[in-house]
Amino acid sequence: MGALNCFFVFVWLLQNCLAQFQVPLLASSNVCRFNPTQTTIALEKPYCFYISVAPAVVSLYVATNGAPSTAISSTNTYTTTGAGSTAPYLAATFENPNCTNTPVISQLGDPSVVQSILDRYIVRVGNDENCFNKIPCNGPLKNGTGYRFKYLFYNSNGNMVYESDWSSQITTSTGKSPGNMDTWPGGRSGGMIVITSILSVLMFLILAGLVAAVISNLVDQSSVLGTTTTTTHETRTTHNAPRKSEGVTYATTTEPGPGERYSAQPQT
Description:
Elements: H1 2-20, E1 41-44, E2 57-64, E3 89-95, H2 114-121, E4 122-125, E5 146-154, E6 160-163, E7 170-171, H3 190-225, E8 249-250, E9 266-267
Antiparallel strand pairs: 1-4, 2-3, 2-5, 5-6, 5-7, 8-9
């Protein structure tokens, strides 16, 4: 019986030692494409960290890189620790994941199960903007800052049974100031942007004038073709028709003989 007890103690010590090398890990890029962001870091939940432990509660502690890592207290808040800069604070608690029911990442292509898989697979640190005086508080992280994370496991009685080691440093993304942002392809200066804008406006006005001139020309041609003109010709020749004497007739007599005269008497 003593040998059996020694065996269980050895297994417990071995498991506890192995647990010290299990640390929170950054979620896979296949699941979270943009990770970390400026204010959040998505971590994998601790699947199969301790397979012999009955379902328990997991607490996630967060501290900035360089902050004292030994002063872990469940009463430390996001505000009192300066968002983890002076001591670790309790960011989130959740049920210990069931090792026999791990999420299937290949199912992320199905929109109906994406959210449930993400909730089971990851814990997003810095996802709550309205919890500054609460415990736990998963407040936003600082941009461009290195953080470390630690999992603590509690049984149903509230007693800590295992803890992971601190993770390696994970740094949030750094935002760019407006003055350093590339405002144009090729990194044009502000003066170049103004000149380019003015030239673009001038080109638009020139094109608009050209289009207006073409349209005006077409309208003029259409009005000319639609107008009909009447041509008149003046006659330069005149015709004089002979007039017929009205009511007077002349009688012609035979040629007169010697000593006789012609006489023409009008006849009515």
